[in-house]
Amino acid sequence: MTEASSGAPSGPRKDRPLSPHLQVWRWHLTMAGSILHRASLIVLYFGALIVVGFLLSLALGEPAYQAYRGVLGSVIAKLLMFGLTVALFYNIASAVRHLFWDIGKGFHPKTGDLMVAASIAFAIVAALVVWFIAFETGAL
Amino acid sequence: MSEGYKTPLGRARGLGPSHHGVGHFINERVTGLALVPLALWAAFAGLKLAGAPSFEAAKLWLQSPINATLLAVFLVIGFLHLKLTIQVVIEDYVYGFVSKSALLIGNVCVCVLGAATAVISILMVALGGGAG
């Protein structure tokens, strides 16, 4: 590790050593899992606001509700909602995964990779199941 | 004032940890844990609401005290969790003092307004005071 090689310590205050960032590391699964975790949180931020909009339209009365439903019913909205479902389930899996790491379990590189792979698989499968049920019950 | 006139202690001050990171971390994890069952319930609720698209059906669903309570709890804890987690993302990736401060304050505003709007809307529908 040559963490101080870039930006030699010329001054006493500036050029403090930086921690190695994305461009320094080889891509691996736990890193992708961490990035996906943050990306899914940003997606869910907007997802939460979509739910708030739904409740607000319900409180404002039928015309507002029907208009909002109409927007949510479009193909683009449905695709976005599918992404939202994946993000939601990925976040659930990530919360559980981090709980194991927080109590000091699952730090072996292979175990960590496996946990991330399982989280991603769970997110996709669970989202597909939910949308399959929606399709079967005619909710889609 | 020039840095050169400061004592070594004066230069070091304010560069260390803030000492309130542990509370933030624990709140983040506990809200995340609470959201696991709540989010699973929310996915189930979303399916129910999508399957009964009429205005009356949606109102009736939200007028159930259990649904109204769980949905309010889900959204309040959800926004609390989002406030804590997105705050860390902003702190990690935004460097400018003004832009970082603006985003951090904006994050709090969005989360507080979002949670408040959700709870008031739920109460309006659940208590039958909603328009229409």
Essential attributes:
heterodimer, A: 140 residues, mainly alpha, 4 helices, disordered N terminus, B: 132 residues, 78% helix, elongated
Task: Please give a structural write-up.
- The complex is a heterodimer of chains A (140) and B (132).
- Chain A has 140 residues and is mainly α.
- Chain A is built from 4 helices and no strands.
- Chain A has helices spanning 29-60, 62-72, 75-102, 109-136.
- Chain A is elongated.
- By secondary structure, chain B is mostly helical.
- Helices cover 78% and strands 0% of the residues of chain B.
- Chain B has 5 helices and no strands.
- Chain B has helices at 8-12, 21-51, 55-62, 65-93, 97-126.
- The N and C termini of chain B lie far apart (64 Å).
- Chain A binds chain B through residues 13, 38, 41-42, 44-45, 48-49, 51-52, 55-56, 58-63, 65-66, 69, 85, 88-89, 91-92, 95-96, 98-99, 102, 130, 133-134, 137-140, and chain B through 3, 11, 29, 32-33, 35-36, 39-40, 42-43, 46-47, 50-51, 53, 55, 58-59, 62, 71, 75, 78-79, 82, 85-86, 89, 110, 114, 117-118, 120-122, 124-125, 130-132.
| Beta-strand content bin of chain B | under 5%
Low-confidence stretches of chain B: none
Average pLDDT figure of chain B: 91
Total strand count of chain A, please? 0
Question: What's the order of the H and E elements of chain B?
Answer: HHHHH
Residues in helices of chain B, as a percent range: over 70%
Total of DSSP H or I helical runs spanning 4+ residues of chain B: 5
